[in-house]
Amino acid sequence: MSSKKILQLNSSLMGEQSYSRKLGNAIVAKIKDKYPNSEVEELDLVESNIPHINPETLQAMFTPQEHQTDEIKQKLELSDKLVKQLFEADIIVIGAPLINRTIHSSLKSWIDHITRRGITFGYNGEGLPTGFVLGKKVYVAMSSGGVYTDEHGKANDFVAPYLKSFLSFLGMTDITIIRAEGLHMPVVQDTALQKGIDSIVID
Ligand SMILES: Cc1cc2nc3c(=O)[nH]c(=O)nc-3n(C[C@H](O)[C@H](O)[C@H](O)COP(=O)(O)O)c2cc1C
Known about the structure:
By secondary structure, this protein is α/β, with parallel strands linked by helices. 36% of the residues lie in helices and 20% in strands.
């Protein structure tokens, strides 16, 4: 298929200056080289102020469909919209800047909204979790001030393992991590973004 639906998420506080956005844009450009008629839908999670899930949202999420009143349905509107957008995409490009050793809370909120029992995941007869978001390719564009792939940094590399683990739980097992790292380190920072861009392989 020469066209793909790409969902590009950004979660940076740096707007257009953002390195994870630039890296994500480079990933999208390379996907378009391979699949020229692709469509891109962008969602800036910081600008769109994705709220935290709260007790009411949670309760609505666990209300069986046949008992959902208009009020409950309204509480699920955002979550439903984000889930639909996710299911419609073939490829998801996630801009994930490192903020205090983890993902930005806007990206975590997006994850909380798309995690819906009976819709994006469930449990099989043995009680084991099963993801329902199948057939997706995910690229994570990570940016960080420090380096987390060397011997010293590895112990503090939480974002890549977390995203791999959780997105796989939802069924998205085909995940490639691309990094622009060392963006606050002398010398390393001069080539960090370009190194990240050069490491992009679209499979
Ligand atoms: C509030 C804040 C916390 C940060 N925490 C970390 C951190 O724990 N580790 C790290 O390597 N870089 C950290 N950084 C640096 C960012 O990861 C770096 O600036 C990166 O370029 C941000 O991505 P962006 O340019 O897409 O916004 C932090 C930056 C900010 C603003």
